[in-house]
Every structure is written in structure tokens, then in C-alpha cells.
Amino acid sequence: MTAAGAQSPATDRGEWFPLLPGAEVAPASDVVGAFARGQELVVWRAADGTPQVWENRCPHRSVRLTLGQVVDNRLSCAYHGWSYAADSARCERIPAHPDRTPPANLCARTFTCAERDGTVWAWLGADAPAAEPPAHPLPPGWAPLRTLSLRCSAAMTRLALAALGWRHEGGALWSGRLGDQPAQALLLEAQSELAMLHLRCGAAGALRDVHALARQLRADIESQAGAAAPATEVSS
Amino acid sequence: MSFAIQDPGLLGSWLVAGPLSALRAASADRPFRTGLLGREVALWLSDDGAVRAECDGAPLFAQGRYGFAWVCPDGRPARELFAFPEFDEPGRRIIDCGPVGVATSGLRVVENFLDMAHFPYVHAHYLGELPHTEVTPYKVDIDAATDEIWATDCRFWQPRSSAAHAEGSDAAYVYRVMQPFCAMLYKSSSRAGERDAIGLFVQPVDETRVIAHTLLAYFDDTSSDAELIAFQHTIFGQDKPILESHRPQLLPLEGRLETPTRADMLSVTYRRWLRERGQQYGALAADRTAALAATGSAA
Fold first, then answer.
1. Is 3.30.310.220 the CATH classification of the domain at A143-228?
2. Cβ distance of A67 and B121 shorter than 8 Å
3. Domain ranges of chain A
4. pTM for this entry
5. Beta-carbon separation of A40 and B120 below 8 A
């Protein structure tokens, strides 16, 4: 388990972040927002399915690329239609000047990403990752259930999960139960006070009950974290 | 004066603080209260109709012009308020389209107002339409006498240029920046040979929250006031989600965080003009701009 320390942001980004279940991003169509350690990201897929994890910012006027759409295997910004190619992130089209080729160095900022065991992972470090994302295969017959957003830090979430009887299985993976149903969770440090839990479980008997239990898990974690943390104003 | 203004870009400037219509129901005892530069300002009309303004009980230089109350936050007005001759021109209809709150820097709002290239994307079927995306070369000058930015020879194909335009036309635009937070545009009117004027007066409530006031000075023989206001609200409603999605919200005036193209000549001039005045309010400091360009970290 990674200890939450006080390293400088430049050095502590060298880890894989489980952004979201890959099924949430359809190829050549969906444009999805994500966070990892405060970095705002846009996630989409090329026509061949290759995941793309970029800074959520158009280099032209710094508008979020999540407002955009995928057109012809490029991510097109909603503001002026500047269009960035899959994989290279190179700007290939500036509609205000349809007859000119954009400069070759005009690119959106990309991050290393990989898809493994049904999860899209991002690497924020400046150096290339030494290894693939950790293997957290879904047990046979299991599927992603939903993602919980938690208004607390990843470190608090770890403490709360442990206190609630969940077990850290290494990497981002935790195992526990939703009622009597075995479950797993991939923990993402989205922002300093925002954690995500990607829940997965086996074929649920009553889906409605499992979702109610997931919401209860969120309430329990936030309540544990709130009791442990100094009182803070919660902005709505 | 109670505003501790250090920003050279704001020294001696006039800032809009609300429509005069809002002051008519106000009094010294029950003033119209609004936000300006992170403070609360109280405004009302004196018995002789003059605008009175206070911040924390201290009086501010204030005046009523063009249907709005203007205050000089540091008490040392460096110049008269900009000229707006169309406001008094016979035959023009003067319509205040009402205040719109926007969660971004006022400099972003003005820059967006000066931009044609977004028309086919943000204002599709109104101010632009695919595949008519090209921005042809235009001229940008700074008027030596007034220190205003003027952009001329601007043309853009528009399917529905205003409430009175039923079909497409090649619209001619002239843009003008009078102050960091105030700009005008003049565009082809539905009345042949005339130009309509639109004023954008941005009230900086704080560095990343503004109230945008839009004033029309139009020749329009067909549309009702409500139709003209509704059209403007439609356009602004399309801009608002874009404006509120800038990260960083503050406008970088230098460095390579943002990349302009030739169509952005007016924006490039506006940013340089702000930089040369030493504008800080609503602008991203140079060291933060460089840090963001280097790391891409969230602002």
C-alpha cells in the first residue's frame, strides 16, 4: 500500500492510477472526464479502441476538451473545432484556416495510459513507467458494478475501508463485502479531497439491494473519514 | 478610498457597477448593493439624479452614463469614460439585455466577445454554420489618441445574424476595446447601410466571477424588445458553458500556455495591450503561467 506522504508533486506522480472501467468509454464516440491526483484528464478512444488519456485542456484557449466530440478519429474542441489526432495528439485541423497545415509541434498534452483487466490506467510521471499496470483480473463471472465518488482523501478512504473490514490486496485493489456479496474495489486518488472507488462484484442476486449497499458503503466511508478528520466546512 | 488598488491596469479606470434602472428604486437608506473587485458597493441616485456610490461607508467617484452606473474604484479617474456616440444617435433603439453572471475572468469574457472563429461551433445556425469556418484576414490598430483597440475589415458568413435576419448573410464586423473590461462591436444592421452596435460592459465581482452587461444600440424595425433580448440571451447562453470551462480561469497574458493562430490577431493584440498596461486583475501571473505550461497541473 502506498503511504500518503508529503513528496513534491513532481516526484510522486510515478504510479498507475485506475481512472475508470474501460466499458465506460465507447470507441470513436465517448469523451469522458477523469481526475488523478488533481490532474484533470479527458479520456476517449480511437476508432481501433486504443484508449487516449490527455490533459483536459485545449492548448488554444485552455477550454476543457471534455466539451468536445470525436470526429474522424480526432478529438475536436467545442470552442473552435481545433482537432487533435488519436495517439499523437497532434493538431491536424484549425477550421479558421482550412487551407493551412497547423504547426507540427501543436499538440494536446498526453499521458501514458494502458488498459488492463477492464480498467483504463494513467501514468502521470515524467519518466516512462517501469512496469505495466498491476494485474487485478476480474474473478470469473464478475463485472464492474459502479464507481463511488467519496468526499475525502484517498488516505482517509484506505483507513476507513480497513476499519470497515475491507482488505488491501496490493496496488489499488481492495476486497470486502457488500452485504453477503463478495466485492472488490479499485481505489483512485482523484483529487486531494476526492477519492473514487470502482466497485466490482459477482452476478448480483438483487441488483437494487447491491446498489443500496454501495451507497451505504459510501456513507460509511465518508462518515469514518469525517470523524477522523478535523471539522471542515463542506461546500455544496 | 477603500479599494486598495495596486493594479496598474485598473488605476484610474471606470468600472460598470449595474444598470441605472436598478438604482431608481434605491436610496441612501436602501441602496442597490453589488459586488466589485471583491468588495460590496452601495449605489443610489441623489435627488438631482446623480449616482452616489460607497464602499464601507467611504464615497467613491461615480457617474451615470449609457444607462449604467460607473465607479472609479481608486478615486482618481484618469480620463473621461469612453465615447459611445451611437447611444445618443436618433433612431437607434437602446436595449439593456440584463445582467448575466459568469464564473470566469472578465478578461476571458471580453476576449470571447472579440472572437469570430467560434461562431460556427458555439453559435451554430445563428452566428455561423459549418462548413463556413474560415476567418479571413482583418486589420487591428490601436488608436493613438484614445488607446483603444480597433479591428476592422472583419467578415463572417452568418445564417442568422440578429433577431431581424431571417436568412444568411455575409456579416461585416468592427470590434473596439475601450477598457480592459469594456468592448463594443458594430455589425451589419438589418436596416441596409447601417451598423448596429453592441456594448459589452463586464463588471468584475472578483477575479473569476463577473456580471456581464450587454447593451444594444440597434436599428431594427421589426423585432420587439423581447425578441432582441431573447436572441442575445440565446447567444450568451451558448457562450456561458464555454466561458466557465476555461482552466485556468485567469487569462494568461504571456508565455506559451496557450497557442494563438492567425485568426486570433485581435486576441493577441488584446493580451499584449493588457500586458503593456500592467493588467493583473483577472490575468494569470507570469510565474503561474510558466508553471502550468511546464507541468500541466490543475490550476
1. yes
2. no
3. 16-123, 143-228
4. 0.93
5. no
